[in-house]
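>> Question from a student workshop board

For tomorrow's exercise we were told to take the sequence and the ligand below, predict the bound structure, and bring the output to class. My setup keeps failing. Could a helper post the expected result so I can at least see what it should look like? The ligand is thiamine diphosphate.
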Amino acid sequence: MAKTSTARESAIERAGLSDAQLVEMLRNMLLQRQLDNRGFQLNRQGKIPFALGSEGHEAVQAGAAMAFVRGRDVLVPYYRDLGLALGVGMTPFEILSSLFARRTDRSGGRQFPNHYTNHDLGVASISSIIAGHCTHAVGIAAAFRYRREAGRAVICSTGEGATSQGEWHESVNYAAVHELPIVFLIENNQWAISTPQSMQMKVAHVTDKAAGYGIPSALCDGFDPIATYAAMHVAMERARSGGGPTLVEANCYRYLSHSTDDDDRTYRSREDIEEQRKRDPVPRFEQRLIEAGIIDAAQSRSLRADVLRETNEATDAAEAQPYPSVESLYTNVVAGDYRPWQD
Ligand SMILES: Cc1ncc(C[n+]2csc(CCOP(=O)(O)OP(=O)(O)O)c2C)c(N)n1
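>> Workshop helper replied:
Here is what the output should look like for this input. Compare the format with yours to find the bug.
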């Protein structure tokens, strides 16, 4: 028998999210997992040079994306933000065009893989320099303030390793002093390539650093998309309403190697990964929605099939696109016809 909406309300702590939004978050997580694995598969098939893995970050990113208001907010992501990019409206075709380095990529097929961007959706281009993008994010938040564009906020995401970088500290400090509308989202997956958190900082949590800048912080369970959404929603509303920046730390785990170029067997044990796998956010959230009666097992199977079909179609479509033309080599590199190396 179908559960009543009252039964459903009590069956899941939903932070004000509707059934449709909860299912949208699950779909994002399933799509993220599928596309993420596709990147590694294509690399092993020799079809693309490189891919990064965001497996284990699905709940953080699906939750954070739900707190983003399209057409108003700006996302300044980092390279592991596949789910955030998808969650704010980027398509699998755009992501795969980037992985295949095809002309249809938003950067014309000339950016590094996983460096998503979409000006129309408010997704800033990624900086490969760890924490370098935090200064861009703060600049955007400062522009909102300067132009008196109230009700807009910036999400600036990084891993926990990035919080050791000078630019990160300068950015958080500047945003704090000027009370800028920005949320610093830390996706703490415990590793910065081969460096564990214990070798990265002396404090137990990145949120412990917030006091040094005089800003509020929230530590949330990054294996739970609803918990991440709740923390991000409060922080984004604070930023949009003139309350200044917040530091949100979401604990998660990186199940795959740092990238297709990294062999994580050299620095962490298989047992550690197996242990963390027990908390895998994707099947866990799927099960929660089934138990709460929000979807049934058949709907969950059909969501998975749909996501696989969408990924396959996008893969074929992106692979069929042409590479950038040789003539476009200098486009967006230097202005006009100016060639500094020829003068
Ligand atoms: C300034 C700088 N130093 C080093 C690197 C090489 N590098 C790329 S990713 C990375 C690890 C970053 O770890 P973290 O911020 O925790 O994010 P994660 O990759 O774990 O999601 C490093 C050191 C870089 N890109 N930029």
